[in-house]
Amino acid sequence: MKTLHVELGERSYPIYIGRGLLGHPDLIQAHLPGGQVLVVTNEVVAPLYLDRMLASLAGKDTGSVVLPDGEAHKTLDSAMAVFDALLARRFGRNAAIVALGGGVIGDLAGFAAACYQRGVPFIQVPTTLLSQVDSSVGGKTAVNHPRGKNMIGAFYQPRCVLADTDTLDTLPDRELSAGLAEVIKYGFIRDPEFLAWLEANVERLLQRDPEALAYAIERSCINKAEIVAEDETETGVRATLNLGHTFGHAIETGMGYGVCLHGEAVAIGMCQAADLSRRLGWIGDDEVARVIRLLERARLPVVPPRELDADAFLEHMAVDKKNVDGGLRLVLLKSLGEATLPVAVDAGLLRATLECYGR
Ligand code: NAD
Ligand code: GLY
């Protein structure tokens, strides 16, 4: 097992990464302040891992909420189902919420934990590659609004992150690739050495080589933990984690939540961000080709859906948390391995990118 730390003063916490961690009750139980625990999960993950999760909480007064699967259910209604379960069991301020699932469950359960009785202890047990390398770390919690992704949320840090890499054995290939988009993102925004490693090892990751996956998860979490420690609430460098996300969120909202997976939308968005960076003269054709090639090799889409024209993109991109006073700002690439902070861009260049379908 590897243990990393997110250094946030009194809110610091460990990230445990390794095989079979769900079989070690001591790990999670050390972070539970009280006797009551509600596990929040969904109908896909529950049959696979809920029994194992509850076994590791033996001795506690436990309950569980099994939500419908998918991004379309990352809503206030689902959060209400969590509040209903907590209240039905008379769970109090010491009760902990455990998120067992991917980023949808993690974001939603974290949001519910931030709100219930003004905040109860929260633990992340991520079961997708995407959630193990990104969403479970850093305390961003949210639900979607029909008009915009993650528009209702809070910064709320977990007490620990327990990433049992054995859970990835049951993850569908398409979801593995979606997770790779966020792994590759770290290479593009700040870690050129990792980018070179990914270019040499992407096939091993697709084949689920345990050693390669363990390295990619650990290196991703190191990158994420460093950024979060520097800028917990995204007043600066944390925004670089949003490379491709303004385009990507427009795809997710515009196509309807769940049609394009989050990681797939981010992959397309990173190609669009690279194209716009080239138009600004910051990177060249070769770098754009490298971005597209690696994402294609990770079996990710690199071209936006035909259904979304430039006007549709611009309408959805107008709803973004990085915008200031109604002005659009984007994270782009200064070079391959270095992202910019959010910048305002020339409207004509942006339209040119949106009209060329990412190429
Ligand atoms: P997800 O949570 O929808 O999980 C993907 C699919 O895999 C789902 O069908 C899920 O039920 C299933 N699944 C989960 N674990 C499984 C397992 N071990 N075996 C088989 N199936 C399994 O999607 P995701 O890609 O994990 O997360 C995407 C979400 O994360 C988005 O809502 C995105 O906005 C959010 N996100 C948040 C942050 C953050 O910092 N908070 C960062 C990145 C993404
Ligand atoms: N995934 C974006 C962030 O955590 O800031």
From TrEMBL:
Pathway: Metabolic intermediate biosynthesis; chorismate biosynthesis; chorismate from D-erythrose 4-phosphate and phosphoenolpyruvate: step 2/7. Keywords: Amino-acid biosynthesis, Aromatic amino acid biosynthesis, Cobalt, Cytoplasm, Lyase, Metal-binding, NAD, Nucleotide-binding, Zinc. Its EC number is 4.2.3.4. Residues 179-323 form the 3-dehydroquinate synthase C-terminal domain. It catalyses: 7-phospho-2-dehydro-3-deoxy-D-arabino-heptonate = 3-dehydroquinate + phosphate. Zn(2+) binds at E182, H245, H262. Pfam families: DHQ_synthase, DHQS_C. NAD(+) binds at residues 69-74, 103-107, 127-128, 140, 149, 167-170. It is found in: Cytoplasm. One of its GO terms (biological process) is chorismate biosynthetic process. Its cofactor is Co(2+); Zn(2+); NAD(+). One of its GO terms (cellular component) is cytoplasm. Residues 65-177 form the 3-dehydroquinate synthase N-terminal domain. GO terms for molecular function: 3-dehydroquinate synthase activity; metal ion binding; nucleotide binding. Its main location: cytoplasm. Binds 1 divalent metal cation per subunit. Can use either Co(2+) or Zn(2+). Belongs to the sugar phosphate cyclases superfamily. Dehydroquinate synthase family. HAMAP family: DHQ_synthase. Catalyzes the conversion of 3-deoxy-D-arabino-heptulosonate 7-phosphate (DAHP) to dehydroquinate (DHQ). This is 3-dehydroquinate synthase.
